[in-house]
Specification:
This protein is an alpha+beta fold. The protein has 2 domains: 305 residues, no CATH class; 44 residues, no CATH class. It is 30% helix and 26% strand. The strands form 7 sheets. Strands 1, 4, 5, 6, 8, 13, 14, 16 and 18 form a 9-stranded mixed β-sheet that branches. Strand 20 and strand 21 form a beta hairpin. Helix 1 runs parallel beside helix 5. About 3% of the residues have low confidence.
Length: 473
């Protein structure tokens, strides 16, 4: 199907959903929950560094294509407990920044900091989040203000969960080629050379909709995919396709409606279809966002109420050992860095990381490879629904596994929650290739430096999520 035909198809579907959505009415007015929703435009000044791609020596933003937002959901149960979830149009958020924002939110709202979950949408066209970055403390606290505003808007609410399937957007980006090697979708591999994808994808779209006084006021949309339509060739602030998702839903539900994107486990999932190629345009971001918006509206159209007015929160801190850098890897890294000292670092590239950055990282990683870190996994129960927050970029298989094993009938799983701890591949993925020690032998995500914890760490955090779900339910 041609690109123009695709646009006409989802425009027609959008019109159908609009008619159906307008006919929806809520029959309940209260379910024991108090809910507040809010958004805050936190877009920082132009000129600050963009995050998410290797850009050589120049990372400075050049302008604003579309504003960056923080969007917050605060829920209070009939048991008196409050919990908050904040999603921000930004690439990553580290632990230090999360704790800084949690302390601020707790001081302003009284919501316990352990009951606050902070997510990144993972747009690769946003600023740095580390507190040492210029002006970062200022704009990250402005983003946190969305929670304060949502808390002020708490009101009796009915909440709903809906589901749909969207299989036109995401693709497993790890390609098994006919010679047994692993390549990534952005490499432009000849489709005839590709045997299949090494793993799965999760096409499920889950919505969590808030209704007050008989009117829907906003929805969480949970879907797992890398937010990388706009990569190293883009120099403007942009929310990428989640921003267009918000736009598309508001065209149907009204400008006062508040959609928010909760990214699922997306470590090995991308928007790039290898058979078509890497389309890194704003038009492509809009196409993807509108498709996701239509699927979200479809889920909302067929939603059912969340039962049970209780809110509960759980956290588990999982000890994970750093991955080992072998003597052979260290020797390779030192040799590469000797060349860098003579020739300098390479110029920018569209995606991935050059060998020179891997070499630099391996030397640093070797110094702390015996370190054991404490990694947070958080679960928030809202009646018979659960929000699961996983750190870093877990493979999509972990989200599927957690949902399958959860005793909760409605489980929403997110990545990029509360800290950035790099990629969490499956144990199996480390065997998907010919072996060796130099970068990209078994694929981008399994390369030390892209992943920083020992094999099996993804399974460990997924197990921690399931344990907490079993305790809460």
């Amino acid at each position: 199907m041609k690109y123009a035909d695709r646009l006409l198809l989802f425009a027609a579907v959008m019109a159908f959903i609009t008619i159906q959505s307008c006919n929806m009415k809520s029959s309940k007015s209260d379910s024991g929950f108090m809910v507040g929703m809010a958004e805050m435009n936190y877009t920082p000044e132009v000129g600050l560094n963009l995050v998410g791609n290797y850009r050589g020596d120049d990372y400075a933003s050049r302008g604003i294509h579309d504003s960056l937002y923080a969007r917050a959901l605060v829920v209070k149960g009939e048991n008196g407990m409050k919990a908050a979830i904040l999603t921000i149009d930004i690439c990553i958020i580290n632990k230090e920044t999360t704790n800084y924002m949690r302390d601020y939110i707790e001081s302003e709202t009284g919501i316990e900091k352990g009951n606050i979950m902070i997510l990144a949408t993972h747009t690769h066209s946003g600023p740095e989040s580390g507190l040492s970055a210029p002006r970062a403390k200022e704009y990250m606290l402005k983003a946190a203000d969305a929670v304060i505003l949502a808390n002020e808007r708490l009101a009796p609410s009915v909440v709903y969960v809906g589901r749909s399937t969207e299989d036109r957007i995401s693709h497993n980006r790890r390609l098994k080629c006919k010679d047994g090697t692993t390549h990534m979708t952005w490499e432009g591999v000849d489709p005839d050379f590709v045997e299949c994808s090494w793993g799965s994808k999760d096409p499920e779209v889950i919505t969590f909709t808030v209704n007050q006084e008989g009117k829907d006021i906003g929805s969480v949309v949970n879907f797992g995919c890398h937010v990388t339509t706009l990569t190293g060739s883009n120099w403007l602030y942009s929310a990428d396709f989640p921003g267009y998702m918000v736009e598309s839903i508001r065209k149907v539900k009204g400008e006062d409606y508040l959609p928010m994107f909760f990214n699922g486990p997306c470590g090995n999932v991308t928007q790039i279809d290898n058979e078509i190629g890497f389309l890194d345009t704003y038009q492509e971001a809009q196409r993807i966002g509108y498709l996701l918006g239509v699927s979200a509206l479809e889920a909302i159209k067929d939603q059912s109420p969340v039962e049970g007015g209780v809110v509960l929160v759980s956290q588990e801190f999982v000890p994970l050992k750093r991955i080992t850098i072998t003597d052979e890897q260290l020797a390779w890294a030192e040799e590469v860095m000797e060349r860098v000292a003579r020739e300098g670092m390479p110029p920018l590239q569209q995606d991935g990381i050059p060998d020179e950055m891997y070499a630099e990282n391996w030397i640093k990683m070797h110094e702390i490879q015996d370190q054991v870190d404490s990694i947070e996994v958080q679960v928030i129960r809202v009646g018979d629904l659960a929000f699961v927050g996983l750190t870093g970029e877990p493979f999509n298989e972990f989200g599927i596994e957690i949902k399958a094993k959860s005793p909760c009938p409605n489980t929403i799983v997110m990545g990029l929650a509360n800290d950035y701890t790099s990629y969490f591949p499956t144990e199996e993925s480390f065997t998907q290739g010919p072996g060796g020690f130099t970068p990209m032998i078994t694929g981008y995500e399994t390369t030390p430096g892209t992943t920083i914890y020992e094999i099996g760490s993804g399974e460990a955090i997924a197990a921690a999520a399931v344990r907490q779900l079993e305790e809460l339910f």
